[in-house]
Specification:
Strand order of the largest sheet of chain C: 5-6-7-3-8-9
Number of strands of chain C: 9
Largest interface: B-C, 19 and 24 residues
CATH architecture of chain C: 3-Layer(aba) Sandwich
Oligomer: heterotrimer
Distance between the termini of chain B: 22 Å
Order of helices and strands of chain C: EEEHEHEHHHEHEEEHH
Radius of gyration of chain C: 17 Å
Shape of chain C: globular
Shape of chain B: globular
CATH topology of chain C: Rossmann fold
Low-confidence stretches of chain C: none
Number of domains of chain B: 1
Helix content of chain C: 25-40%
Chains: A mainly alpha (134), B mainly alpha (252), C alpha/beta (233)
Largest sheet of chain B: 2 strands, antiparallel
Structural class of chain C: alpha/beta
Strand content of chain B: under 5%
Low-confidence stretches of chain B: 198-215
Chain lengths: 134, 252, 233
């Protein structure tokens, strides 16, 4: 796996988001083992201390849990995974809505455009949802 | 120290092999070549002697150059050994090569002895030896030459460290001046304290009339005092060299 | 915890030119520290003092608790910005040299590193390209299990692809409980592996900061911050 890092943002946040994304998309299943610090460090070419910090934060948020002598595992609580999903979705939405507002769309218009886009997407499965505005 | 020496020898391996071959070829040429020109055994002996002297000087130069390169080399200076080890390795290098040179010379003497040339040289008075010591002459000569080499090297290494500590131009001239100055100072002190005729740092052998080698004979007592004097001076040189390497010599 | 490296108002002059001016800093164990500065800012002098190659004119230096010397040399692995191997050596002989003189040399690790770096013991060091020479230098330095690694411009003279490879090797082969100080002026390529950075300018320390804190509080990359710091005067 590779991440295109943005040097302007803390690396540990970027890795946290990356792992969360893997959990949400099911690439890392509930209760599954997370790679060790060393493994991840050499895979991502990142300082092990940064990975360590990432894991600490993930544990603090309850996304991961460490079992003594066995390593770190993804939480098996579905609720937690759902809440990560929601959290990520709301981040995405916030950014999207912010961007749309900058373009001059108000709330109703945004909802309308989104609804149309989703409809288009249904008609052409797999088709790209390019910025078609009716 | 021995490990440093090992890498010095490895580095210079081809030069040393080449040098040995050149020396042997040179001796062969003297041995065979002079046959057609002259039958004088004295000429042969003198030429051979000059040959050994020449190679002895080459060895000193090689030792100094290797030492100079080592004390400036970053790879060597990173090694966890005190500066004294660089000096020790260089001294061993010089003494070892000189011992090899003397061994070759010894073989030649043995050869001369076996074919009767030695006896003839003796009879012709080509060289005279004054030797009154309980140590056998060959061993004595060997020790005297190696000791002289060792002592001279402590001086030369000090001068090499000194030149590497100086940044401005004309280092070579300063080095030469220091060598001349120090060696005359030492022989002056030596003569002053212990008497004698010695007028150079490279005592041990003195050549007179180009073909006369005189091994200095002296009473055991003054000989020992002289030895101790030089031992102290050599130790001071080594100490100074260590200080220079530690504090002044710049690593490239 | 014992500090691996400590400088206390250390100064060093070369002739009339001041290379370090009363610099103080310390490095804790288990850190990868970037020593950042433009050419001639004093990075190399600092490293060479820590490596025990140069003595400072004034100030105190402690490497693993002691003054730099024979003992610290055995526990500090320094990769200079110039070849440390001799031109007559093959790659194998250069490694043998390390093995002969440093008790912490790990032959197994050196073998793995040679493979990773695509070097062969039979290669003549004199015929290696600049990039391959830097790979060998890093192999020599990281094949030791040292307490402190000092890497002087490890990615200085190589193209970006080789640069990535050298960085990969660095993360792969450094010892986790030891510290690494990497001096460089090419920050963008390497900043993701640092824990903290020391920025020096004209022989003085101008900034010491945790890299994630820099990104978190200023929203800037270390590279951007570096450029700002250096543009000030």
């Amino acid at each position: 796996m590779t991440i295109e890092f943005n040097n302007n943002l803390p690396i540990y946040l970027q890795i946290m988001n990356y792992i969360k994304l893997q959990i949400v998309t099911g690439k890392l299943g509930p209760g599954e083992k997370i790679p060790s610090v060393r493994e991840l460090a050499s895979e991502l070419k990142i300082n092990p201390n940064t990975i360590q910090r990432t894991f600490q934060e993930l544990e603090r948020e309850g996304v991961a849990e460490s079992r003594r002598g066995l390593g770190r595992f993804v939480t098996s609580e579905d609720e937690k995974i759902m809440s990560i999903k929601k959290e990520m979705a709301s981040e995405l939405l916030e950014r999207f809505i912010g961007g749309m507002r900058e373009l001059g769309f108000d709330g109703d218009n945004i909802v309308k455009i989104v609804a149309e886009s989703v409809e288009d997407g249904k008609r052409e499965p797999g088709g790209s949802h390019s910025g078609t505005t009716a | 120290m021995l490990r440093l020496l090992k890498y010095d020898l490895k580095r210079d391996m081809y030069v040393l092999l080449g040098g040995t071959i050149a020396l042997l070829l040179g001796l062969l040429v003297i041995e065979l070549g002079t046959k057609s020109i002259t039958t004088s055994v004295t000429a042969k002996a003198v030429l051979s002697f000059m040959m050994y002297t020449f190679f002895g000087i080459l060895i000193l130069i090689a030792t100094c150059r290797g030492f100079q390169a080592n004390i400036c080399s970053i790879g060597r200076r990173l090694v966890p050994l005190g500066s004294i080890h660089y000096i020790g390795a260089a001294l061993l290098y010089g003494v070892l090569l000189n011992a090899v040179l003397l061994a070759i010379a010894g073989l030649q003497v043995l050869y001369y002895d076996s074919v009767g040339i030695l006896e003839e040289l003796w009879r012709l008075g080509a060289f005279t030896v004054n030797w009154n010591s309980s140590i056998p002459l060959p061993l004595g000569a060997l020790l005297i030459i190696l000791w002289a080499t060792l002592f001279l090297l402590t001086l030369l290494l000090l001068v090499m460290a000194l030149t590497e500590s100086i940044k401005f131009k004309g280092r070579i001239l300063i080095a030469l001046a220091v060598i001349v100055l120090l060696s005359s100072l030492i022989s002056w002190a030596e003569n002053h304290f212990f008497g004698g005729l010695s007028s150079q740092a490279l005592t041990g052998f003195r050549i007179e009339d180009q073909s006369q080698m005189i091994l200095p004979s002296q009473s055991f007592r003054t000989g020992l005092l002289r030895f101790i004097f030089k031992l102290v001076v050599g130790a001071v040189f080594i100490w100074l060299t260590v200080k220079l390497i530690d504090n002044r010599v710049k690593v490239d | 915890m014992e500090q691996l490296l400590e400088f206390e108002t250390v100064s060093k002059k070369f002739g009339s030119k001041a290379a370090l001016q009363g610099i103080s800093l310390s490095v804790n164990p288990g850190r990868i520290v970037g020593l950042l500065g433009s050419n001639g800012s004093g990075k190399s002098t600092l490293m060479r003092i820590a490596a025990g190659l140069i003595r400072p004119d004034s100030g105190k230096v402690r490497v693993l608790g002691d003054e730099p010397g024979v003992q610290s040399k055995a526990r500090v692995s320094f990769m200079p910005d110039k070849p440390q191997f001799e031109s007559w050596m093959t790659v194998g002989e250069a490694l043998n040299f390390q093995k002969d003189f440093f008790p912490d040399f790990d032959p197994d690790k050196s073998k793995r590193m040679l493979d990773f770096m695509k070097l062969s013991r039979k290669d003549k060091t004199s015929s290696l390209s600049k990039g391959m020479q830097e790979r060998l230098q890093l192999t020599l330095a990281l094949s030791r299990r040292a307490s402190l690694y000092l890497l002087d411009e490890p990615i200085g003279g190589v193209d970006p692809v080789a640069r990535d490879h050298i960085l990969d090797a660095l993360v792969e082969f450094y010892e986790e409980d030891s510290s690494v100080i990497v001096s460089t002026h090419l920050i963008a390529d390497i900043e993701r592996i640092f824990d903290e950075v020391l920025m020096i300018k004209d022989g003085s320390l101008v900034l010491r900061e945790d890299v994630e804190r820099i990104r978190l509080t200023s929203g800037k990359s270390v590279d951007q911050l570096f450029k700002e710091v250096y543009a000030e005067c």
